[in-house]
Design goal:
CATH architecture of chain A: Orthogonal Bundle
Oligomer: homodimer
CATH superfamily of chain A: Farnesyl Diphosphate Synthase
Distance between the termini of chain A: 25 Å
Structural class of chain A: mainly alpha
Helix content of chain A: over 70%
Order of helices and strands of chain A: HHHHEEHHHHHHHHHHH
Largest sheet of chain A: 2 strands, antiparallel
Largest interface: A-B, 57 and 57 residues
Number of strands of chain A: 2
Number of domains of chain A: 1
């Protein structure tokens, strides 16, 4: 597949995700809640998780309408976590995706509620009713809800954030750092791949390979995030640069050094490609391309 | 059924719910997160929502293991909403169920994360895997996730809280007040009944009657809450009394007056009983008893 075909695929996928978010995140939720939810998730972000869901679904020749719902649900969980993470009691950040953060724009109470409602909405989107029920068979609804809940919860993202909270100002070794990031960022990225795969019926070996791929790029993403935090300006990132250093948080750069962190990112990218090669899936080219994008990005 | 039989049923049901919460809310979640989650949900609360789930399941002769999971999931959503609601940016309350609130005990960041993780855990509990997967058939997992998500989200509890937030200090008429409470408290109480009913296969008329019952006691609960807020001391309530008045929030007492509010509660209780009579269900006696408990309580 040449570059322009890949770009065209990405553009189309992103348009589809954006339109679905626009349709499903309710403008009409009461008392400004819908406005805060839409502000927190529309018009911004790389949409890496949705792209992983859609690419994994294509790799297993899965059900596209179900994958689109999974893509939106994962992005809603990601966006809610950013809203809560930015609040004064957590990272106290005022800039996100180049805009004032949700609590700066709408107040802390509305920001907390918007995040809470977005987590619930993720599971609403996964369990369509009435005329849309056919888009996701019931057994797949259950499987997607289970995967998403476990990636978002105490053993995944929320657990990783708790470790992050406790780790500020403390030295972590590489093992502890990896455990934190596997939960905090990796779990949801890996779940994106697994949810896309669940929309089809991959053979066990392919399923395992996709899981390995998801684990590798999940960690690679965070290593690159840590690198960008020290090498890029806030304008490029669309969020406050250097904040991990300022907050005295352990990162791959502080623990390994910049060059070893870069090497680690490359190694993980190779592992992701090796997993895809093992998968035996004929249509994994977009997953391969996304692995490269995760590592070769500047924001 | 005589009083002691009812009390025995309640005691057994509560023990079962408590044991399940103890088993499923993870003590081992990292970096103090599990401790905060358990503090926020164990050893406290009336467990009205779990009792409604279990009583509704019995009324339709449904699957008990599934109903127990639904009971725990609903209580997790309720408990997380209290944790977030008590935070300084919302109600800023320091006392809950007779103990310091979660953010007082563990800090605001951990309280927010514990609430977030508890919402995710609710959906984990509803989607058991491996050896426990048989407890809830996949189609029922999907149905329970959908009911819970919609009750918790923008159209239900979170939406009601947003209206509540915006209403502070403003006059509301009875219609607007009812709309707020139907979402804020009523949606999850009604969902408790519907989730219990989903564990069986009630006829459409019985299903509708149970839905009506749930709507009536959902609203009755909040009317009585508003009454207790002005008539009871903090020690009896286990939370700060008079806080709605202090916060200048519209309540059934401020909008209708105390006597009319009491009359409203009695009327809703009668509507709940009438719905059960309509249901044609032979084993709805515990739902009837719970309707009385909702209205005749002092905390």
């Amino acid at each position: 597949m040449n570059d322009s075909a890949i770009d065209r695929w990405m553009r189309q996928a992103l348009e589809e995700v954006e339109a679905a978010l626009m349709a499903w995140v309710p403008a009409g939720a009461p008392a400004g809640l819908g406005e805060a939810m839409r502000y927190g998730v529309l018009d911004g972000g790389k949409r890496l998780r949705p792209l992983l869901v859609l690419a994994a679904c294509e790799a297993v020749d899965g059900r596209r309408p179900a994958a689109l719902r999974a893509a939106v649900a994962v992005e809603l969980i990601h966006a809610y976590s950013l809203i809560h993470d930015d609040m004064p009691c957590m990272d106290n950040d005022v800039l996100r995706r180049g805009k004032p953060t949700v609590h700066v724009q709408f107040g802390q109470a509305q920001a907390m509620l918007a995040g809470d409602a977005m987590q619930a909405l993720a599971f609403e989107v996964l369990t369509p009713e009435g005329a849309e029920a056919h888009e996701v068979p019931l057994a797949l609804q259950a499987r997607l809800c289970g995967l998403l809940a476990r990636a978002a919860g105490h053993a995944g993202m929320a657990g990783g954030q708790a470790i992050d909270l406790a780790a500020t100002g403390k030295p972590l070794d590489e093992t502890a750092l990896r455990d934190m990031h596997r939960r905090k960022t990796g779990a949801l990225l890996q779940a994106s791949v697994l949810m896309g795969a669940a929309c089809g019926a991959p053979a066990p070996a392919a399923q395992q390979a996709l899981s390995d791929y998801g684990a590798a790029i999940g960690l690679a993403f965070q290593v690159v995030d840590d690198i960008l935090d020290v090498t890029q300006a806030s304008e490029t990132l669309g969020k406050t640069a250097g904040k991990d250093l300022d907050a005295n948080k352990p990162t791959y750069v502080t623990v390994l050094g910049l060059e070893a962190a870069r090497q680690q990112a490359r190694l993980l990218c190779e592992q992701a490609h090796a997993a895809l090669a093992r998968s035996g899936l004929a249509h994994a080219v977009r997953l391969a391309m996304l692995a490269d994008k995760v590592v070769d990005r500047d924001s």
